[in-house]
Design brief:
Radius of gyration of chain A: 11 Å
Structural class of chain B: mainly alpha
Strand content of chain A: under 5%
Number of strands of chain B: 0
Largest interface: A-B, 16 and 24 residues
Shape of chain B: globular
Oligomer: heterodimer
Number of helices of chain B: 21
CATH architecture of chain A: Orthogonal Bundle
Shape of chain A: globular
CATH superfamily of chain A: ACP-like
Number of domains of chain B: 3
Number of helices of chain A: 4
Number of domains of chain A: 1
CATH topology of chain A: Non-ribosomal Peptide Synthetase Peptidyl Carrier Protein, Chain A
Number of strands of chain A: 0
Structural class of chain A: mainly alpha
Amino acid sequence: MEKLINILEELNPDVDYANCEDLVDGRYLDSLTILSLISEIEDNFGVVIPTVEIIPANFNSAKKIWDLILRLQEEE
Amino acid sequence: MSYFDVVYFLAFLPIVIIVYSLLPKKIKPLILLIASLVFFFLYSRWLIVFIIISALSIFLAAKKITKIENEKKEAIKDLDVLTKSKVKATYIKKKKLILIITVLFNVAFLFYFKYLGFFTGVLNSLIKIFNVSNGFKIIKHLAPIGISFYTLSAISYIVDIYHGKYECENNFLKLLLYLTFFPTLVEGPITRYNEVKDTLYEGNKVTYKSFCFGYQRILYGIFKKMVIADRLNIFVKIIFNDYNNFSGPIVFLGAIFYTILLYMEFSGTMDIVIGSAEIFGIKIPENFREPFFSKNISEFWSRWHISLGLWFKDYIFYPVSLSRGVKKITSKVKEIFGMRVSSLLMGAIALFAVWSLNGLWHGAGYQYLFFGYYHFFLILMGNIFEPLIAKVCHLLKINRQNWFYKLIQIIKTCLLVFIGELFFRANNLTSGLQMMKQIITNFTFKGFNKTVITLGLDIKDFIIIGISLIFILIISILKEKKIEIRENLSKKHLVIRWLCYYALILSIIVFGAYGEGYVPVEPIYADF
């Protein structure tokens, strides 16, 4: 989780990732940032994020993104 | 029969409501299907066969994909990790083949009906350049109504099934209803199966509330179209056909009026679509969210024709940007230039694909492709310069949340939208470019006031348009502030409520631009 927070902070340092629950809906993560984030997650956590998983519900908070990573690692 | 025909909202819709209400809950969705097929037949006659074939293709393909998926689950149950991934890959290959064939099959229909003429023309131009032969005969076909909309819905269904987003539909008639549902058939929104299935097949009762809410929304749509769009149509037609005879500001005013006309016509149709479905308790997602409050072009497209933007995002933007080929290119760029440049490139490639297709989706013509690339360029520039603008604002201590800064951004976005819509409406690309030239090189306000009132609209028309736009602006501001206007109105006293309804009906009858001297706007998006 800490590694993920570091990645997120590198992409946009002005967000409180511990508490923010609307990263996508609140426009803290736009399409381009999501692309960078996905690329970083895939490189760092050894998972492939299918496009069908790129929905606000999976990216609205650091916790949700972390859950997605864990789920995909389990499915691999 | 368009949604603005009296026959639709005073005959077709009431008949469907009555029959639907009289029959038991279980049969209600079937009534909607029959009504939808009748509606389709009235528009496109025998071409109805093509939508049935499309529905059948995705129905059978989805069943087959689900079967393969179940077989895969069974086959990999007790295997070790290495064998598991090998077996998985075999099944995925099979699924993918079915997906590709089904998508191509549906796209082929769209291509045949909509793009064959355009691409034959392009081919003929190339042949002419190289002087090889006389070229091919350009054949234009009458397309099934709503083919651009229902094909995208069909593709979204089969792709989602492939990804296991939801379970496939086992009842063909239900899937056929999803594709043919009469309110969304002609101009969208491009609905997703999982968004509408619950209320579409529920057979909900028509209640007093659903009836009133539905017809309120329909009336609001008719108001937008008949009072504003149809009135502006006269002015817009003159300007776009005779732009050479007018000064720059008049031509630009024509572009502004066309943008307003387009918004009123298309969002008005969406009000009728959503209102019609609401009567039957069916929830259709909104297709507009006050687009003229957008602070940049990217935001504008997330508020205008939302369902199309989301479709392109989910089925083109992300799949292209995260495809193996693009990833390969961008990973090399990332090593040299870093993450920001690589994601910019990734986004740029995907955006190019999105806007090429978006332009072509709107029409088979060079001006539509130009319209697409114009937006591609604006969004790309926005992506590139955003960090720089943020830095400059930070250095100059400009608060970007300040209302004045926001207002400037909104005005800038509107101006860019007006230019885009000018090309969109122009008779062809050359006309669009000439109109822009006219705006820049002949920018004089000499005789502006006198000319404006000779273009089919008099002072009275301008006053009606002005007041109506203020009325819609107030409603838009309230919606932007998340104030539920209709819910609030429903809590008011009966007399106040009915006064509002009568005021809206009367304003359409009295101020509607119909009869002699007026030419109603043709359903613009129905042609896409």
